[in-house]
Amino acid sequence: QQRCADTQGLPGYDRALLRRELDLFPHWYLGEHRGLRLDGATAGRLEAVFDTLIESALAQPRVFVHRDFMPRNLMVSDPNPGVIDFQDAVAGPISYDLISLFKDAFLSWPEARVLEWLRDYHRRAAGAGLPVPEAFDDLLRWCDLMGAQRHLKVIGIFARIRHRDGKPKYLEDAPRFFAYLRTVIARRPDELGELGQLLDLWECP
User: Fold this and answer.
1) β-bridge partners, 190
2) Domain presence at residue 53
3) pTM for the complete prediction?
4) More exposed terminus of the chain, fewer Cβ within 10 Å: N or C?
């Protein structure tokens, strides 16, 4: 998909879209769901975290991004797999669909297994001529920061679905995404330690 899909005509996963997605977390999860209002200093700290995540995403090579590339949207077919629900596709960071697939909304795999899959992807992608960094650790950093952006977005979306649309079930999976966040925060304390402190301040899981 990343190697063959034509990105001509697709909108870009640009700064404005990345920011709109991130803003779902303070608006819908912190504000509407938790009833929290951020003071200027705290909002500034969160803004700095958002800037880090956005700059990392924008610095990555751009490929076809499905934006909801997960097991439920993959079907057995010939050739395999069949991909559905791609109407929100954009041209964007190469790590996004990896995180969407391996850090799923409804089931979790052990982190060691995810790392094995990412290493296998790195090897195969390099062999296929995709623009991945030479060092696996650099790809993992891209994935970790891209993942943090997506995890915050999804938590915000789940809160929006509950409070705007009256569907509470999705928010039951929010702890899964906080667990994903805690994993990458522990691995990237220099870049994400501030986010960990904010989650502690807000008594998030």
Assistant:
1) none
2) yes
3) 0.90
4) C
